[in-house]
Every structure is written in C-alpha cells, then in structure tokens.
C-alpha cells in the first residue's frame, strides 16, 4: 500500500474437515448486507507502513464455532500416514467438500506447476541464514512473504514455505507482526517499519493451510496461526461507529488514527475470517463480525462507485479524498471475495461478484474492460465471473487468451499464479 511515507503504484515498484459446510454457514449471522470496507493506499500492491496511530485492541469473545473438531493436525496430533501422503502430493492443500464457484477445468496441474516454477525463478531468493524472500524491486515487502507462503503451501513446497516463514519471524515489530518492508536478506531485527494487515492475514491463512498440507510436521503451524490471528484482531482491527473494521496496519489507519483515518477494501478477506472462526473458537465471534462489516462496506462502495470499489476510503466507507478509484490496491478485491464464494457460498459474495461482472460487461468484457492490461486486473475480473460457469468460461478465455498482458513485475506475476490456483479450484480453505 502507499503509505504516508514514500512511494506509490505509479512506478509499479510498490511496494480437516469440519462439520458439513452447511452447518458451519448456519452459524453465521444472517446475510443481510453486502459490503466490505478497508482503506489505506498501498505502496507496491498492498504493503503498508505506519505513521503514528493508536492500536485497535480487541478482545475476542467466545463463540460456538468449534475449533478443535476437524482442525488440521499439527505436530503430535497427526493424521494417518496415508492421509499425510495424499495431502503432500496434490496441488491445493485439501480437496474442499464443496467448491461453490465455477472452475476452469482446462487449467492442468502441469500448467500450475510450470507457472509456479517460473514465478520462483523470477521472484524468489534464498538468504544465507536459511530464510527465503520474495523480491519486489530490490526489496522485500511482507505482502510478498504472505503471497509466497500461500503459493508454496498450495504447491507442496515446504522448503520454501519454511524459509519464508522464518524471514517473517525474523523481522517482527513491537507487536509481533512483520515489518512491512525490509532490505533483501536484511539481518533479523525490528527496523520499525510497522506491519501491513493484508500480509498478516495471508500469512495466517497460509499457516492454516500448511497445518493441513503437512499434518505430521513438528512446526506447530496451526498453533502459530492462532497466535498470529489474535495479534491481528488486537492491533489491526477496531470498532468504528459500532462496526468492526480492518485497519490497514498495526499503528495507523482506522478511526483511531485522526491524522490518517483510512481503510483498504482490498485487504478485507471474509473467506479467511470464516476459516479462523472455525479453528480458533475463542476468536470466532470477532472474526464473524468483521466479515459482516466487510460486506456492509462493500455494498456502500459498489453503490457509490458504479459496482466497483476504491483503493481506500474513510472508515465509514465514504470518499476520503485520497484513493477513491479502482486501481492497484482495489484490483485485488474481486479475488478475495471470489475466494469467499468458492469456500462458503456466501450470497453476499455472489452479489458482489455479479455487480463486478455487470461493470465488466458494460465496459467491453475481458480483457478490454480492465484498467490495466495485466493479470492483477484482468485475472481478478475473471474470477468475479465464477458465480456462473458460462460467464466464467468466457472471462477465463478473455484473460488467458490475451496476448499483451504485462505480468513480468512481481505484483502482477505473483497475483497471476494465485488467481490461477483459485480459478482451478486448487486454493484450499481446509474446511
């Protein structure tokens, strides 16, 4: 994300099993409103840096969504060797009981493996201390670490996963969250850059996926995910006018930061919130309230922006006069919402996707409708068509058939592979 500090997107250097899914969804609050809210500009595709601001400390209330039933095994609570072997050999950590979105059946596992291998060669480096990094224009952003952990968990690449997780842990700020940017292979320590919420959410989700992928590991992925999830709730969410919102960082944004009260819609991850509510019962009600608030804000955005969402807004979803456009932060939002629809079938997610699709169709379809000709924009719009198989097939043809997309840079290239996993139904919820 573009911070109140330095650079922006213009240069592009920006920065298991649980009870049946229907039973889980029945525990969710009624799906009344469709909206999600978040702000904060992103410097380089979603990394955040901090200016001064009060942290939003929240206690997570007990709720009735079970965390131990069907949780991925971790360490001593391992699954059978047969199950572990199966999980280790397929793309996507587990086959979900239900995948509600359309799938692109023409995307083969061989293609996904080739895309992943090319991504690693272009953007991943190993450090001498055993950690690994995803490089963004000569530096490291926590966002890239999160994306890399999601990709390596899906592709059964535990060596890279553990290397990226080590780098995250080696660069924690005062709140126990990774500093949003560092130098390449920077020595361990706190460089006081503060945290970026989207990265912390992606890393937490990747740890949950890793617990399912490698159930016999002694790394304790699920327990570490629960600790990290608690820190996100404590420092990166807060109550604003009766609504729990997601702050863009752990020391800035939200209604408590009077000098910079922004939120970032592209950070909202309602699919993750429901997964966290399932596994971490003491936090469940807080995650579910955050999901509801997200859809309330999404509805506000789409109402005032002709079915799109802004890069950033005020905490109540209104125009903050800074990021009121669909650009290099906002372009990721359809991906995050499409994942929620795929994992949970939330009707609010479907409405959001239909609204995005309406905008795309009114502007010439794909790839023409995209604001920029790269997969960060075109691919996310394609995923928005997943509520209908015929629509999805048309959108995927428009995306993958485009010959002029510039996916060489870190941001576009990394999102391309993540989007392809989702399109193929290989981005697992572990539910």
- CATH class label: Mainly Alpha
Q: What is the chains' assembly state?
A: single chain
In helices, the fraction of residues equals 40-55%
Strand order within the widest sheet? 1-2-3-4
Instruction: Tell me the number of helical segments per DSSP (H or I, 4 or more residues long).
Output: 14
pLDDT under 50 segments (min length 5)? 1-71, 73-88
Which architecture would the CATH scheme give at its second level? Alpha/alpha barrel
Tally of discrete structural domains: 1
Biggest sheet record: 4 strands, antiparallel
Q: Determine the CATH topology.
A: Glycosyltransferase
Order of helices and strands: HHHEEEHHEHHEEHHHHHHH
Assign an overall shape. Answer: globular
What is the strand tally? 6
SS-based structural class? mainly alpha
Mean pLDDT over the residues: 84
Strand content: 5-15%
Radius of gyration: 19 Å
Distance between the termini: 30 Å
Describe what you observe in this structure:
61% of the residues are buried. This protein has one domain: Glycosyltransferase, CATH 1.50.10.10. 42% of the residues lie in helices and 5% in strands. It is mostly helical and 431 residues long. The two termini are 30 Å apart. The strands form two sheets. It has a four-stranded antiparallel sheet with strand order 1-2-3-4.
Please write out the topology.
Layout: H1 21-26, H2 81-88, H3 109-123, E1 124-126, E2 132-136, E3 139-141, H4 142-154, H5 158-170, E4 181-183, H6 197-213, H7 221-236, E5 237-240, E6 243-246, H8 270-279, H9 284-304, H10 333-344, H11 347-362, H12 375-383, H13 389-400, H14 410-423
Antiparallel strand pairs: 1-2, 2-3, 3-4, 5-6
């Amino acid at each position: 994300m573009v911070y109140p500090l330095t650079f922006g997107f213009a240069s592009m250097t920006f920065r298991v099993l649980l009870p049946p899914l229907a039973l889980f969804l029945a525990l969710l609050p009624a799906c009344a409103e469709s909206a999600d809210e978040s702000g904060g500009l992103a410097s380089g595709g979603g990394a955040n840096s901090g200016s001064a601001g009060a942290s939003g400390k929240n206690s997570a209330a007990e709720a009735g969504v079970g965390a131990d039933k069907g949780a991925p095994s971790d360490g001593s609570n391992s699954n059978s060797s047969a199950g572990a072997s199966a999980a280790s050999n397929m793309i996507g950590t587990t086959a979900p009981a239900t995948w509600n979105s359309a799938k692109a059946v023409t995307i083969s596992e061989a293609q996904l493996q080739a895309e992943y291998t090319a991504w690693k060669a272009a953007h991943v480096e190993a450090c001498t201390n055993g950690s690994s990094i995803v490089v963004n224009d000569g530096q490291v952003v926590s966002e890239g670490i999160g994306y890399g952990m999601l990709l390596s968990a899906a592709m059964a690449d535990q060596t890279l996963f553990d290397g990226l997780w080590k780098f995250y842990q080696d660069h924690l700020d005062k709140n126990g969250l990774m500093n949003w940017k560092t130098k390449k292979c920077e020595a361990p320590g706190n460089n006081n850059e503060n945290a970026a919420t989207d990265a912390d959410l992606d890393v937490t989700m990747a740890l949950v996926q890793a617990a399912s992928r490698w159930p016999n590991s002694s790394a304790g992925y699920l327990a570490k995910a629960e600790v990290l999830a608690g820190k996100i709730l404590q420092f990166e969410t807060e109550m604003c006018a009766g609504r729990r919102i997601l702050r863009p960082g752990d020391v800035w944004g939200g209604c408590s930061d009077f000098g910079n009260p922004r939120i970032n819609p592209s950070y909202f991850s309602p699919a993750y919130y429901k997964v966290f509510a399932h596994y971490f019962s003491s936090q469940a009600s807080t995650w579910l309230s955050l999901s509801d608030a997200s859809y309330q804000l999404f509805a506000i955005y789409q109402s005032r922006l002709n079915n799109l969402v802004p890069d950033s807004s005020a905490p109540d979803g209104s125009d903050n006069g800074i990021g009121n456009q669909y650009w290099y932060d906002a372009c990721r939002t359809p991906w995050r919402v499409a994942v929620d629809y795929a994992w949970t079938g939330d009707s609010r997610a479907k409405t959001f996707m239909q609204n995005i699709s309406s905008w795309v169709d009114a502007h010439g379809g794909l790839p023409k409708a995209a604001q920029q000709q790269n997969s960060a924009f075109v691919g996310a719009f394609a995923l928005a068509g997943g509520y209908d198989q015929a629509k999805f097939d048309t959108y995927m043809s428009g995306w993958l058939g485009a010959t002029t997309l510039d996916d060489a840079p870190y941001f576009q290239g990394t999102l391309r592979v993540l989007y392809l996993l989702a399109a193929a139904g290989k981005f697992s919820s572990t539910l």
